[in-house]
Amino acid sequence: MRHPFLISLCIAGVSVLPACEKNSDADVKRAIESVNVIDESNLNDVMLTVADPNESVAYFQKTVAQYPDRIDLKRGLAKSLVRAKKPTEAAIAWRAVIDSAEGTNEDRVALADALIRANDWKKAEAELAQIPPTHETYDRYRIEAMVADANKKWSKADSFYETAVGLTTRPSGVLNNWGYSKLTRGDFAGAEKLFSEALTYDRSSFTTKNNLVLARSAQRKYDMPIVPMTQQERAELLYTAGLTAIKHGDVTIGQGLLEDAVETSPRYFDQAARALETLNASVTKG
User: Fold this and answer.
1) Record's superkingdom (predicted)?
2) Phi and psi (nearest 5°) for 248?
3) Among 10, 57, 73, 126, which residue's CB has the most CB atoms within a 10 Å radius?
4) What is the chain's pLDDT, residue by residue, as a tens digit (286 residues)?
């Protein structure tokens, strides 16, 4: 009496199996697609961060050609061109993003940044003027400050720099730019303060350390600032201070700083040695 029941179960099992296989195939396909999307996203991130800049450009050029409607890939191409130090091409790529239906205010800020890198300040200013004041971001104010600097609108630049500093947790770069602005205006004490503050956020920036020494030397403070530095960095900073001292007419102090630079460097500091040799020769002739 159990046999008909077992047979019916077997028949039912056979009829269900193809449906299960179909569902399984669909699930597998969706899973593969999801993995592909994740892999592509991760690859895009890698290309925009640690990959060789030129390889990154080639990758995004290829993928944009394959998927011309993908706005994320167009943005990736524009960013990769900036990384590859090709600002003119980057500006063209950002323009394509903005001209699409999916362009945003942040994309326009990125375009302005690329235009500044390409030394096209007027066009950068024109792009910024099209961004509504309600779009308040770190990058927007950082670039606004640079444009105001270029136009020598100092109070405006200071206001934009201050706002930008308040909109980021990593303000070392913008503080360095602000300090350099003060340096070019002749506000050496103000520049020194900003460079010192920038180094509290990023102690590794040699550019900021060098700018700090320039600001201090302009005030005839030739001693090395109390900041972390390698032996090679110390030699180069002594060299900067030495040259500045000589320009100020403090020749003896400058000579001593150049001698310290040569002695401090872990390897032969050719620049400082040549400057010292030239200085000694001119002193002898004089």
Assistant:
1) Bacteria
2) -80, -5
3) 57
4) 444 444 343 434 444 444 444 455 555 444 434 444 445 567 888 888 888 999 999 999 999 999 999 999 999 999 999 999 999 999 999 999 999 999 999 999 999 999 999 999 999 999 999 999 999 999 999 999 999 999 999 999 999 999 999 999 999 999 999 999 999 999 999 999 999 999 999 999 999 999 999 999 999 999 999 999 999 999 999 999 999 999 999 999 999 999 999 888 756 567 777 777 777 766 555 5
CA distance 267 to 84: 32
- Say how far apart CA 195 and CA 171 lie, in whole Å: 11
In three-state secondary structure terms, 221 is coil
Give the alpha-carbon dihedral of 225, 188, 211, 249, to 10 degrees.
Answer: -80
Which whole-number Å values give the CA distances from 241 to 83, 204, 248, 257, in the listed order?
A: 32, 19, 11, 7
**Block residue for tokens 């005839």:** 220
Other CB atoms within 10 Å distance of the CB of residue 34 = 10
Q: SS3 for 201?
A: helix
Contact 173, 143 (CB under 8 A): no
Residue with tokens 């620049």: 271
Alpha-helical (H) ranges within the chain are 3-49, 53-66, 71-83, 87-99, 105-117, 121-129, 138-150, 154-166, 172-185, 188-201, 206-218, 231-247, 251-264, 270-285
Taking the complete model, does pTM exceed 0.85, yes or no?
no
